[in-house]
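Let's practice the habit of predicting before peeking. Look at the sequence and jot down your guess about where helices and strands might fall. Then scroll down.
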Amino acid sequence: MTDFPPLFTPAPTSKPLALRTMPMPADLNPAGDVFGGWIMAMVDIAGGIAARRRTFSRVVTVAVNSFTFKQPVAVGDMVSFYAEVVSAGKTSVTIDVEVFAERNPTDPHVVKVTEARLTYVSVDQTGAKRPLPPEPAAAESLMAAYPSSPNKEIVLQVVPMPADLNPAGDVFGGWIMSMADIAGAIPAIRRARSKVATVEVDSFVFKQPVSVGDLVTFYAEILSVGDTSITVDVEVFARRNPENPVVVKVTEARMTFVAIDEFHAKRHIEAV
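Done guessing? Here is the structure:
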């Protein structure tokens, strides 16, 4: 298989990745930028992911200690949320979150758009405060629960919400297909350095249902590049059950995209 350059410009942070997503036109404010509230919601989710990894339980947000917007976010930016625990008390954890946007696929660059600090409290199923487990035990379990990633790059990492459920109580297959299409398009756009259009879903296999609260990670890898087309493999994994974390493969897909210009005509893809 041909080696292709990395998909993303590394962000200048040592924190672990918690979320990676791409805002859509529905997330815009009247000025044409992404709503600050959308960013705040994603930061809260990202901080909650880091908190659950430390507490191995449900958590609730009890304080936003600081929140600074540094630059606006635009539709099409690839927005990555990095989070780490900075302190832990008897029942609470404080999390630092840094947010970076990679923009302009023809000349990619990364800018820091937000930084925040939030505090969460560990709770049981009744909503009562719950003592944190000892840190060494939590660290050992974390290593066991999150095995090495597949040999692909993380292009999206998101958490489905109740609005994404089907009547049976599982996440809609259409939600997963939509996210997989976005995930496949991200490396295609970066390789083509232009807009792309999905022209074929070569295969799409659902292996397990996805639930609300799962941390769903989409890995993508370019398989081949033609004169105007790019074929991408996508694998999707779900991390679930914070008290006894497991990782399961939920979907795999292969899709083909075509590079297009501003007039929607096919566009030649330059050699690397």
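How did you do? The chain has two domains: 17-145, 153-260.
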